[in-house]
Design a protein that fits this description.
Layout: H1 6-9, E1 22-23, E2 26-27, E3 46-49, H2 50-53, E4 56-58, E5 75-78, E6 86-88, E7 93-95, H3 97-101, E8 113-116, E9 125-128, E10 133-134, E11 138-141, H4 149-158, H5 160-165, H6 177-181, E12 184-187, H7 190-234
Parallel strand pairs: 5-10, 6-9
Antiparallel strand pairs: 1-2, 3-12, 4-11, 5-7, 8-9, 8-11
Length: 240
């Protein structure tokens, strides 16, 4: 597979980044990028705090004591563990209209970028591909005409360790919505955002394919070894 350097992608804001993505069940690994600054931005790019560019919101949990907030519910309601490093297409839990109206839960639109804020899943990021609510452990970054959701996904994917390092608390360290809103991101024009997304999608697809091929080859090698070993036992000589 052809190696693609970040300089070739003209993604100086993501320099030396090895991102992780889970898309359609496939996982890639990551580390943090170098710090961003105005000097390494291309012309036409800006560095902005997320809150200067996008609206955000946190979810909520209807009171568990009210069964009518849950039973027979048809509104998807996600918890932070379901923010699964990629596109999110389904929810395990549902609430009712009454539960939605009587809680701080919000119905997020399609293409909302979700960031998990609490516990072991803190810092995980996904893109909502259907309308859904979340609990209070998830921050939703609402779509607008200034950013492409997939571009924001990659931005926050690359910043997972940075966000996690800012988590506070004891047994359940959490990232606040304020910290997410204060996160600085490189903001190129929309056509450049789309170009970046296309390049990264292509790169990750190639990595996914290489990973799949490696797993297939490993499976074949294991089968070959077991077959060879079995043959050795069946044909053992007098010295055994």
């Amino acid at each position: 597979m052809k190696q693609v350097k970040m300089s070739e992608l003209e993604l100086k804001g993501f320099k030396d980044d090895k991102m992780a993505k889970k898309k359609n069940g496939k996982i890639l690994k990551s580390s943090n990028p170098k710090n961003l600054n105005a000097d390494n931005m291309k012309e036409g790019w800006e560095i902005k705090k997320l809150g200067e560019v996008c609206d955000t919101g946190a979810g909520g949990t209807p009171l568990k004591a009210h069964k009518d907030y849950y039973e027979g519910g048809t509104i998807p309601w996600l918890m932070s563990g379901e923010v699964s490093q990629g596109e999110i297409f389904k929810a395990r839990n549902f609430i009712t209209e009454k539960g939605l109206k009587n809680s701080s839960a919000k119905l997020f639109p399609i293409n909302t970028v979700l960031v998990a804020m609490y516990g072991a899943t803190a810092g995980q990021v996904g893109i909502l591909k259907f309308e859904a609510c979340t609990n209070q452990a998830v921050c939703g970054i609402l779509p607008n005409n200034k950013t492409i959701p997939e571009y924001l996904f990659y931005c926050f994917l690359s910043k997972k360790e940075e966000l996690v390092s800012q988590a506070v608390g004891g047994a359940q360290p959490n990232i606040s919505q304020i910290k997410i809103r204060n996160t600085k991101i490189p903001l190129p024009p929309l056509p450049e955002q789309q170009r970046i997304v296309s390049i990264l999608d292509t790169c990750f697809a190639a990595i996914d394919k290489a990973k799949s091929n490696a797993e297939h080859n490993l499976k074949n090698a294991k089968a070959l070894f077991e077959s060879y070993l079995q043959g050795m036992f069946e044909k053992k000589g007098d010295g055994w």
